[in-house]
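User: Structure please.
Assistant: Input sequence and predicted structure:
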Amino acid sequence: MPPRLFRIPTTTSFHHVPFSFTPFRLTHTKPQTVWLLDIIFPPGFRQTVSYAVRFSFALMLLYETGFGIHATVGPSMLPTISVSGDWVIVSRLHAKGKGVQRGDLVSAWTPMRHSDGPALKRVIGLPGDFVCKDRPAAGDVGSDGLMIQVPEGHCWIAGDNLPYSRDSRHYGPVPLALIRGKVIAKIFPWSERKWFHNGLQPPEQIS
């Protein structure tokens, strides 16, 4: 098949340049190749898309394995966290209970109402600890006089506002695998921003 002639504009005039057409590239009779990919997606556009994809992947990786920002809803953690409107930072480095201590605030999936999302609670007991197993309606902590030992691989969590908290008193010990991370700071409202520090003191040594 003889080569076809196409008009290619230049800065000065039009010239007849012979070249052959293939489904994947245009090949001039001269030693020059023009890829269709370069015509449809210029190199600058492809580079921009590549950077955008990498940045999105990095953000997703950071969100899943690093830190996440979450809104809080509910009265169970009053007065530490407001009923609504607070935004907190959750460290995924403590997922599945890694490095979590008694007194830490955690974000965890709960056996009840799982579809509502993770709950923010305080860790009361870790594997092997004995905790008070009060009825949810009990007035004071320990008023029922019941104790339970937290089984291996589990923790006991509760809200700071006990009368309005649905926690381990309702559904028992929570597997450490359900802990999504440790709540380390409140960032909104901006005027109330702060770091959450574990104020629980270690027990005194009895000689």
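The CA atoms of residues 87 and 187 lie 6 Å apart.
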